[in-house]
Specification:
This protein is an all-alpha fold. Helix content is 74%, strand content 1%. It is built from twelve helices and two strands. Strands 1-2 form a two-stranded parallel ribbon.
């Protein structure tokens, strides 16, 4: 194949690719000692690295043109699929955020016996005629996110609120189950921390001191816990007092006093709680 045939057979679509190799070859051939000695045509062709590379490229494209076109088409389809998937995820995330906002609005809605069936019938804030109706509406919004948008971060927040709502509805078993999920596997750390705190409060209020103490001790010893811990030591000390472990309660409060916040209000609460426990311990009848 001559250089003329190679140039005529070179597809226009691959022109830029050839130019890339031309430049690299020219760079490599710079500095060669080109003398005045006359060469035969065969020697010229043999020494022409540019010609040799063009011929190789054309032969390769001609032999594999179908494969190249198929692979190129697959790459384009894959890129379009990824782009479309990202747009869909973004759209779903926005939809989930809108539903979550409405659900939280329902959860904190005011109660008016004269409220209409439309929660927003009396203004921009949601209003319901009774507590059961507002929690039922809120649970419906949160449930739709958990079931339909489970892959989004919004679903972690919705799961936490769904657990809270179910506790308000008296559906304790389901509420605790969802809060446990939020506490143990949330993709949003602060939501997991909030769920642990709510669980501890619920177990303490229901008399399950062992479970409440386990959660509180885990939170207090967790260096990555993102929420304030000041009041947790007081909660833990009260549980220990309820179990008759007053000396342990004193140790918890003293440790919190030495390591806790410098806030004056917290110090006052901590000191008052410690004094209360100490008085109980001092007045306790000796065996």
């Amino acid at each position: 194949m001559t250089f003329q045939r190679a140039r005529q057979g070179l597809p226009f679509a691959y022109g830029r690719w050839v130019c890339y190799f031309l430049q690299s070859i020219i760079d490599r051939t710079k500095g060669r000692n080109v003398g005045t000695t006359k060469l035969t045509r065969k020697e010229i062709v043999a020494e022409d690295a540019v010609h040799e590379t063009i011929v190789s490229i054309v032969d390769f494209i001609g032999a594999h043109r179908k494969k190249i076109l198929i692979l190129g088409g697959i790459a384009i389809i894959a890129a379009l699929g990824i782009y479309g998937g990202l747009l869909l995820l973004e759209k779903k995330e926005i939809q989930a955020q809108e539903i979550l906002g409405r659900g939280i609005d329902f959860y904190h809605a005011t109660i008016d016996p004269e409220a209409t069936d439309d929660p927003y019938g009396k203004g921009s804030g949601a209003v319901f005629s009774s507590e059961p109706l507002k929690y039922q509406a809120a649970a419906g919004e949160f449930s739709s996110i958990v079931s339909g948008y489970g892959y989004t971060k919004v679903s972690a927040i919705a799961l936490y609120y769904l657990g809270l709502t179910q506790l308000k509805q008296g559906n304790t078993q389901e509420g605790l189950r969802n809060l446990e999920k939020a506490a143990g596997g949330s993709r949003v750390r602060v939501i997991g921390d909030l769920a642990r705190r709510v669980l501890a409060q619920h177990y303490a209020a229901s008399g399950n001191y062992g479970k409440a103490k386990e959660i509180l001790e885990g939170i207090i010893d967790d260096p990555d816990y993102e929420l304030p811990k000041e009041d947790l030591s007081i909660q833990l000390s009260r549980i220990l007092v309820a179990e008759g472990k007053r000396e342990e309660a004193v140790k918890v409060l003293e440790k919190a006093n030495s390591q806790g916040s410098e806030s004056s209000s917290f110090r006052q609460k901590l000191t008052a709680e410690l004094d209360s426990v100490l008085k109980i311990t001092q007045t306790e009848p000796q065996p």
